Amino acid sequence: MDFPRITHHGAQDGVTGSCHQLEMAANSSILIDCGIFQGADVSAHGAKADHQLIDFPLDGIRALIVTHVHADHVGRIPYLLAAGFKGPILCSEPSAKLLPIVLEDAFKLTFSRDQKQVERYIKEVQQRIIALPYNHWFTLHDADGLTAKVRLQRAAHMLGSAYVEVDLQGDAGERSKRIVFSGDLGAPGAPILKPCIPPRRADILVLESTYGDRLHEDRSTRRQRLEQVIEHALANNGTVLIPAFSVGRTQELLYELEDIIHSKKLDAQPEDAPPVGASSAREESQSQQSPEAATPAQKNNENKPGITWPSLPIILDSPLASRFTQAYRELKDHWNDEAQARVQSGRRPLAFDQLITIDSHADHQKILNHLVSSARPAIVIAGNGMCSSGRIVNYLKAMLGDPRHDVLFVGYQAKGTPGHAIQRFAPRNGYVEFDGQRYDIRAGVHSIGGYSAHADQAGLVSFVTAMEEWPGEIRLVHGEAGAKAGLANAIENQYAKQQENVEIKFRNL
Q: What CATH number has the domain bearing residue 411?
């Protein structure tokens, strides 16, 4: 049988640019994701002027299925539409709310900032979106002896993330062919997110391998390490800079920081004081403080070296992250039980009092200058997560050379990005380049693997072995060569123990 056939238009040799085409029959196929290339993957895919363009024919592509809304999975959608794609965009219900925000930002960066054009584009995107509930079979094709159905299941990578099951049924009575695309799988125990439950079976599995050669540190220790880094900055009157992507990681960090602050307040309360939040069950809404609009506690501690956690400003400096955080709050029906319980108790995990949101460029410049000149402890979360663009670059240019400050990485840093260079060269008192200029690395640089939104090797192997029927073919994508090789070896070992056969493909896909 010639079908199904899988062609990879990205992420086959790197960690970004995920885009996979499943040919179900002659002139009938679907795309799973359509992401941009980042870091070293850019140079591997042609000149910078055209590396994001759609260089494959669109004939017969019936639909695009989005696993989640990170840029390396959806950032090429504006190019896809410009190339003439006319089909629907299928995604989960939370992703249906988040995707237009991502694509509006991508359109402004790559095509036009003209508001009328932007509005027309977003309207078209919204008309294309079909929001699917989890665990629901959707019929894509039913003709010419083929029935093709798709189902989304929670992937626990970010809110709305999904892995994709495609079921192909040929002649009546034949066993269907099941192809599973993992998208990005999350690590267990992620805040806010409901857990990922692996599929019952797969004949072919297309599996991400970002952390396929390593294990994350225990997630139970990550909060302790986060506190330690911030305590160091408090002692040094420095700022903690956290590069984070606007959607997913930022909201997880805010959730964790709110919980730390909540605990610190409880520790500081007199025994007869009412519980924090008991009489303040306010409706959850975005904190809209300006750089100078600090709380009374913050103002009282403005020039004091002994500033404490409950008065520590948490600065979210990203208009896009602010929009996503608001959308996350509106999607709290999709949060896990723990997160919803916090809301019911009167807490505001994504809109707490210490949170200061910065939107305008003028306010961004003002708060940057204030932190550089005032020697005041603060936490700044700004995009982007790999330091290749965005407001985090301005903070790094101004603060990276000062040992009072700290940079905390909580996500993957792809080769070729400034974030990877900072991680690599910080132990050598090295430098990083921004806009062709060298900046010495003298700030403390830390990485906490327990915050990774990706499953590690154990999690990826478990996704396979938890199935009732293990796949006979596994294609490893979305990972560097060493990660794929390490994961392939780990999976093969499990198959050998069960005396099962598997074909694992990860070279020259």
A: 3.40.50.10890
CATH number at residue 472: 3.60.15.10
> What's the confidence (pLDDT) of residue 461?
98
Sign, CA dihedral 344-345-349-355, equals positive
> Domain range spanning residue 142?
5-214+453-505
Catalogue the long-range contacts made by 79-84 (C-beta closer than 8 Å, 24 or more residues apart): 79/34, 79/52, 79/53, 79/54, 79/110, 80/31, 80/34, 80/54, 81/121, 81/124, 81/125, 82/54, 82/111, 83/53, 83/54, 83/58, 84/58
Give the integer Cα–Cα distance in Å for 340 and 337.
5
Return the SS3 of 64.
strand
In this prediction, residue 44 carries a pLDDT of 59
Last residue of a domain, one of 415, 434, 451: 451
Residues 60 and 201 in one domain: yes
Asked whether residue 416 falls in the same domain as residue 500, the answer is no
What whole-number distance in Å separates Cα of residue 391 and Cα of residue 365? 9
| 272 falls within a domain | no
Asked whether residue 467 falls in the same domain as residue 343, the answer is: no
Q: Exposed, middle or buried by CB within 10 Å (0-12, 13-18, 19+), for 168? A: buried
Claim to verify: residue 332 and residue 365 sit in the same structural domain: yes
pLDDT computed for residue 307 by the predictor: 67
What is the predicted pLDDT for the residue at 45? Answer: 54
Query: Which distant-in-sequence residues (6+ apart) come within 8 Å of 224 by Cβ?
Result: none
C-alpha to C-alpha distances, 13 to 56, 130, 246, 348, 416, nearest whole angstrom:
17, 30, 25, 42, 14
Cross-sheet strand order for the sheet of 5-8: 5-8, 20-25, 28-32, 61-65, 89-92, 129-132
Could you give the CA distance from residue 14 to residue 293 in angstroms, rounded to a whole number? 44
Q: Helix, strand, or coil here: 393?
A: helix
Kindly list the averaged pLDDT for each block of 10 residues, start to end, along the chain of length 509: 87 91 93 87 55 86 96 92 95 97 86 89 94 97 90 97 96 88 92 96 97 84 84 84 87 92 80 45 40 42 59 92 94 95 95 94 96 89 90 96 92 87 93 95 88 90 98 96 96 96 89
Q: Is residue 438 part of a domain?
A: yes
Structural domain count, the chain: 2
pLDDT tens string 141-163: 888 888 999 999 999 999 999 99
Of 418, 433, 451, the position where a domain reaches its end is 451
Sequence-ordered list of residues with C-beta below 8 angstroms from that of 174, at least 6 positions apart, any chain: none
Q: Is 293 a member of any domain?
A: yes
